[in-house]
Design brief:
mainly alpha, 283 residues
């Protein structure tokens, strides 16, 4: 399906979809009327209207989920016509800055539009009337954006599966095996199975939040807990020669903080996900 699309084309389509969503949300802020709020949206959940420090703490897991996007760095780098570290840094900084602006504009204007008028959902587009045609198109644009990201994610996942398969087959010396076989029947079969698996999960899992919170918790383990444990192991095994006791105390404190915060985000996000599915919330 995406064989004819390059990384550049997929990225451009996805970013254009995000620009459309930001533009629609911004225009709605300036053109919306009071009669618009009489349209009741059935997309709100009960926990959307709740406010507590635990909800704010659990939102950290969503920020940690962004850590998973670093796996796309490899196909992005190989998608450059002239590969160099300098060009790659320019591309990454430009893309990250553009995403920061687009997402900030979408969230800011989406919040200001409904602030103090209705219960605000964390998903900006769920606050709007379901019969709003431009907003409905924006929802379609989200699907288009996700579809264009699919080839990159599938490539990364298939490469990871190939590396595991090579190790299991005891042919680890053929390091170019996964790259050379990208057009073989096995690679295409992996892509089809990957697509069918994700399609089945999307059909049977009603809300992406069920997946996002546990993934955010796991990402926090990779971001904080594991680096903290590594630093703690280096200090305890004296692999780092530090004569200053004060500096060693600071490093121990940093390592302990990383481990504690990582475990907290993981435990709170998974616990909140289970409570959300079981409809168990404090009154």
């Amino acid at each position: 399906m995406f064989a004819c699309l390059s990384v550049h084309t997929c990225s451009f389509i996805g970013f254009a979809s995000s620009l459309y969503i930001a533009a629609v949300v911004m225009v709605k802020y300036f053109t919306i009327t009071d009669e618009y709020f009489h349209c009741k949206s059935s997309n709100h959940l009960e926990q959307d209207c709740q406010s507590s420090w635990t909800l704010a703490a659990n939102s950290i897991s969503f920020a940690c989920t962004a850590y998973e996007n670093h796996v796309s760095s490899v196909p992005v780098y190989f998608g450059l016509k002239k590969r160099s570290v300098r060009r790659y840094i320019i591309v990454v900084v430009t893309v990250m800055s553009s995403c920061l602006i687009v997402y900030s504009v979408t969230g800011l204007f989406g919040y200001l539009t409904f602030n103090g008028r209705v219960c605000i959902s964390g998903d900006v587009l769920r606050n709007y009337c379901p019969r709003d045609i431009p907003i409905s198109i924006a929802r379609v644009m989200i699907v288009v954006s996700l579809i264009t990201l699919y080839p990159i994610t599938c490539y990364v996942g298939r490469s990871a599966f190939d590396s595991i398969l090579i190790e299991l087959l005891a042919v680890a010396k053929h390091r170019t095996f996964a790259v050379e076989s990208k057009h073989t029947l096995r690679a295409r079969l992996e892509a089809v199975v990957w697509f069918l698996l994700t399609l089945g999960l999307a059909i049977f899992i009603p809300d992406i939040l069920v997946v996002m919170r546990p993934l955010g918790g796991l990402a926090s383990m990779f971001m904080l807990t594991f680096p903290g444990l590594c630093l703690l192991n280096l200090l305890l095994s004296n692999l780092i020669q530090i004569s200053s006791r004060f500096l060693r105390l600071i490093l121990y404190t940093v390592a302990g903080t990383y481990v504690a915060v990582g475990f907290y985000i993981f435990g709170s996000s998974v616990t909140y996900s289970i409570m959300s599915e079981a409809n168990i919330f404090p009154k």
